[in-house]
Amino acid sequence: MSRYVYPDLDALSIQDRESIMLACRMDEAEAVKALLSHASQEEEAATRVRFLARGLVRGMIKAQEHQSGIGALLHEYDLSSEEGIALMCLAEALLRVPDKATADQLIQDKLSAAHWDAHLGKDRPFFVNAATWGLWISERIIDTEDRRHWLGGTVHRLLARAGAPLVRSAVRRAMAMLGDAFVLGRTIDEALKRARPREQEGYCHSYDMLGESARTEEDARRYFESYRQAIQRIGEAVDLRAPLRERPGISVKLSALDARYEPGQESRLQCRLLPLILELCRLARDQGISLCIDAEESWRLDLSLDVMEALIADADLNGWDGLGMAVQAYQKRAWAVLGWLERQAARHRRTVMVRLVKGAYWDTEIKDSQQQGLNDYPVFTRKAATDVSYLA
Fold first, then answer.
1. What is the pLDDT of residue 3?
2. Beta partners for 328?
3. Residues 6+ apart with CB under 8 A from 68
């Protein structure tokens, strides 16, 4: 595959979709070099940033002195550690596991892969040590082939039989505490209720159904109905006196609305998916809230841009400034995508909301490119490069 290098990203921002495509796997060093000039700040702005940053850091340090148990646990097992990744994967996955047998297998897989004893110590808060001991012991109670040497014979089998339900219950409790820090509610009504105190403090939420890609037509119909009901419930709870950008909104994953949201299915998506997302947009408009097209894997970006182009151009949505899109700064195309969105909005005299994020599929993106034998990646491989892109 040829490698395209565009040192002048300003030119990209005013070009068409072909420029976005060519920027997909551009040389990382050249991309960062071009973005650095846009990420730089004037001295006055840099001074304000440093002042604000110092205040935030001091606040975080002070908050850690009175850190809650769950806060200490999350700090100990952050996503830079193997154990933190295992816990987050487990917390998210257990939310979707209905049967006990599958839950036991999942817990076994995640807990046996980590090194919990490395997180024990006198300098850790009591809650962290207690939780670590529980995870460390659970790891050894669960009946796995490579742990049989830890407990022998009958004692091990007894603990394995009696321990699995206990471990499952304990881990579910722990995961519920972790999930509570990241998931606002199990239903849209529960989430709206829990969000109310924060919204009174000035926070604004965009609700996500936590849906994965639809695998079947039935999945797609169920996700669509969930989105439709959520939009209605959010609209009923919204304060229409507030500006649109300060009201709660909803995020929609297009891959949840069609089981074939993939390249090569453009004609199908034009006929089947586009009417669905248009219906949701009209409902969001009528309810006075915003709707954000959520980010997907990089190989689906062109499909998402096709949908955005159609939505921005749709005359029935004129006058509604609630349409938005999440743009991932860890993609090398982010700068070009933002320029394209700006051009589309100007062409149709529309306001388009943008949620700039860093990205959430990094491991998958890297592995996919390696498996295909491609000579570069659609995402930046270093966090510092993503930071530069985000700031630019």
1. 40
2. 357
3. none
What type of residue sits at position 72? A
On the 0-12 / 13-18 / 19+ scale of CB atoms within 10 A, 2 is exposed
Count of alpha carbons within 13 Å of 158, Cβ hemisphere only?
Answer: 5
Which DSSP category does 42 fall into? -
Residue 151: what pLDDT?
36
Instruction: Specify the pLDDT at position 321.
Output: 94
Give start and end residues of each alpha helix (H) in the chain.
9-13, 17-22, 28-39, 43-65, 69-76, 82-94, 100-111, 126-141, 153-182, 188-200, 217-237, 266-287, 301-313, 334-347, 362-372, 383-391
CB atoms within 10 A of CB 11: 13
Backbone torsion region of residue 336, taken as left when φ is above 0, otherwise alpha when ψ lies between -120 and 50, otherwise beta: alpha
Q: Which of 250, 239, 256, 254 is nearest to 207 (CA)?
A: 250
Decide the pairing of beta strands 290-293 and 206-208.
unpaired
Query: Hey, how many other C-beta atoms are within 10 angstroms of the C-beta on 203?
Result: 10
Task: Report d(CA 355, CA 343) in Å as an integer.
Answer: 17
pLDDT of residue 204: 86
- First-residue to last-residue Cα distance in the chain: 28
Q: In the prediction, which pLDDT does 2 show?
A: 37
pLDDT in the model for residue 175: 65
Alpha-carbon span 320 to 284, nearest angstrom: 9
Residue ranges for the chain with pLDDT beneath 70: 1-15, 64-96, 108-182, 211-212
Judge whether 259 and 216 are in contact, CB under 8 Å: yes
**Of 265, 243, 241, residue with least CA distance to 255:** 265
pLDDT in tens, 299-338: 999 999 999 999 999 999 999 999 999 999 999 999 999 9
Task: Look at residues 264, 276, 263, 352 and name the one whose alpha carbon lies nearest to residue 308.
Answer: 352
Other CB atoms within 10 Å distance of the CB of residue 192:
21
How far, in Å, CA of 307 to CA of 268, rounded?
A: 12
The helix or strand, by DSSP H or E, that contains position 355, with its residue range, turns out to be strand 353-357
pTM of the model: 0.73
- DSSP class of residue 259 equals T
User: Which token pair is 23?
Assistant: 């920027």
Q: Specify the pLDDT at position 158.
A: 37
| Bridge partners for 353 per DSSP | 324
